[in-house]
């Protein structure tokens, strides 16, 4: 039974972290214009549209790289 209790705690903590990350992304989506940056590809033809956020991916990659390097180097 002790294994199930520790597994339950891990799952609850992971769920709480995912919830917090989702809430943060929801709030940041309203403040920052990520996803609509110049350089993102938007192609529309009739009733078909294709969107690929190239610049947004690059910006997020750089920010996450800097953040994780700062956290793990300590």
Briefly note the structural class of the backbone: alpha+beta
Radius of gyration: 18 Å
Helix fraction, binned, reads: 55-70%
Low-confidence stretches: none
- Largest β sheet strand count, sense and barrel closure: 2 strands, antiparallel
What is the count of helical runs?
Answer: 2
Q: Averaging pLDDT over every residue, what do you get?
A: 88
Strand element count? 2
Span from first to last CA? Answer: 37 Å
Query: Biggest sheet, strands in spatial order?
Result: 1-2
Portion in beta strands = 5-15%
Order of helices and strands: HEEH
- Overall domain count: 2
Shape: elongated
Tell me about this structure.
By secondary structure, the chain is of the alpha+beta class. It folds into two domains: 1-32; 34-74. The chain has helices at 2-31, 54-72; strands at 41-45, 48-52. Strands 1-2 form a two-stranded antiparallel sheet. It is elongated.
Give me the secondary-structure topology:
Layout: H1 2-31, E1 41-45, E2 48-52, H2 54-72
Antiparallel strand pairs: 1-2
For the structure shown, list the relevant keywords.
2 strands; 74 residues; two-stranded antiparallel ribbon; alpha+beta; 2 helices
Brief rundown of the structure:
The chain is of the alpha+beta class. The protein has helices at 2-31, 54-72, and strands at residues 41-45, 48-52.
């Amino acid at each position: 039974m002790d294994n199930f209790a520790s597994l339950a705690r891990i799952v609850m903590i992971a769920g709480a972290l995912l919830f917090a990350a989702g809430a943060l992304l929801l709030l940041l989506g309203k403040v920052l214009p990520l996803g609509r940056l110049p350089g993102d590809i938007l192609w529309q033809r009739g009733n078909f549209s294709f969107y690929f956020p190239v610049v947004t991916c690059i910006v997020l990659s750089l920010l996450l790289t800097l953040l994780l390097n700062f956290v793990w180097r300590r």
